[in-house]
Write a structure and sequence with these properties.
The protein is an alpha+beta fold. The protein is 25% helix and 32% strand.
């Protein structure tokens, strides 16, 4: 019997949610509260399912998103999530069918890129996605950090306040928009994100209210926010508490310094689990002894697939001026072709150049890594993932594509 891949109707939505939970190895039962929360994600035509004899056996969801390019421009993205195939139906091409259908629709809508968070590394490269940001997790041994326990707060005239959930919902979105406007790789957050992270949307995972700290500058402007929780570990009669950060936003270096120093100063705290941070986080070197912080994990995070090469390359700025002809390899994909890029610190122009001699040849997946500046052309060439056709082209491209900071996306979706 043929397995039907189609858009999901409202009536099929509960079966789709159950199949998603099965695919992610979660308890299959679906409550009305979970359905109500997930219905807020229901956009007609953007939920796909594979159905075998009427039963949903694979799931796929996409939604509108913005991702920040190098230089700060918001770029229209087709964000992909909730991708599952039930264990009984693997290796039948169901993901490929759903992916092709969704990417074609995204290209027709005019989305510049597609994004996703890859649970497994080998899967998405064959669809033209490449790892475009990385993230790092640290553990801080507070007693070794060398911080002065007598410190009474920020040294720059700012202040730290603990706030409640209503304050988070009021202050958080504007702070996040300000932060993401200067952070390449950051993605937009909708109202549902804030509801989910403040306990008002039930997605079936246990939620416990964390603490929330806000940093205000000397002028009173909110420049940073952190959500964190504590365990209750003691060694005999001595507290040995770990503070675990759920998320942190710091729009300025002063906010970043103040929030981390505050958390490390909380009584009973001997360790801080930082959660996922950007690879350029200041944290280790905000401590008198940076060796008190050790990396506990480091991984790729946001994956990008370029759908419109011209618009993607024109959306960002470039650290150095230059001209390149790129030959992008993308079998049966929308990015395939040769493109002339004239770029510099003030922006770029790009146009198809089918008859031009290429300076560099690279797959669409590697173009994604170059686009956000997380990889250099020189490193991709050394790895054999980019071919130099014109002598000196790699040396010219390397400073062009690098950003002032490495990109970072803190949000799983």
């Amino acid at each position: 019997m043929t397995i039907d891949v189609r858009t999901v109707t409202e009536g099929e939505f509960p079966d789709w949610v159950r199949a998603r939970k099965v695919g992610f190895l979660e308890e299959p039962a679906v409550t009305e509260a979970q359905l109500a929360a997930r219905r807020r994600n229901f956009v007609a035509g953007r939920l796909l399912g594979a159905f075998d004899a009427g039963r949903c056996v694979a799931t796929f969801r996409s939604f509108a998103q913005e991702v920040t390019a190098v230089g700060g421009a918001p770029v229209a993205a087709n964000a992909i999530s909730n991708v599952t195939v039930t264990a009984t139906h693997r290796r039948r091409g169901l993901l490929s069918r759903m992916m092709r259908r969704d990417l074609a629709a995204a290209r027709e809508r005019g989305d510049t890129v597609a994004t996703l968070i890859a649970a497994e590394y080998p899967i998405y490269g064959r669809y033209g996605f490449g790892p475009a940001t990385h993230t790092t997790r640290w553990t801080v041994e507070v007693p070794r950090a060398g911080l002065d326990p007598r410190s009474s707060g920020p040294e720059d005239g700012g202040r730290i306040d603990l706030v409640d959930l209503a304050d988070v919902r009021e202050l958080g979105p504007e702070l996040h928009d300000r932060w993401r406007s200067v952070t390449p790789g950051a993605v937009s957050r909708d109202a549902l994100w804030w509801d989910r992270h403040t306990g008002t949307a039930d997605f079936g995972t246990a939620w416990k209210e964390p603490f929330h700290a806000v940093y205000r500058s000397a002028s009173g402007q909110v420049e940073g926010m952190m959500a964190y929780a504590f365990d209750d570990e003691w060694k005999g009669t001595q507290p040995s508490v770990t503070a675990s950060v759920e998320w942190v936003l710091a729009a300025t270096p002063g906010a970043e310094r103040a929030l981390w120093r505050f958390l490390c100063s909380v009584d009973w705290t001997v360790r801080v689990d930082t959660g996922w941070l950007g690879p350029d986080a200041l944290l280790p070197h905000l401590l008198p002894d940076p060796r008190a912080a050790r990396v506990t994990d480091h991984a790729d995070f946001l994956w990008v697939r370029v759908l419109d090469v011209v618009r993607a390359l024109e959306s960002r700025t470039y650290a150095a001026p230059g001209t390149l002809v790129l030959d992008v390899r993308d079998e049966d994909g929308p990015a395939a072709g040769r493109y002339r890029l004239d770029a510099g610190p003030d922006g770029a122009t790009c146009a198809p150049a089918p008859g031009a001699t290429p300076d560099l040849t690279l797959p669409a997946a590697e173009l994604a890594s170059l686009w956000l500046g997380d990889q250099s052309a020189a490193r991709l060439a050394a790895l054999g993932r980019l071919t130099e056709n014109t002598p000196g082209a790699v040396q010219r491209a390397t400073p062009m594509f690098r950003g002032a900071v490495r990109p970072w996306c803190p949000d799983a979706f």
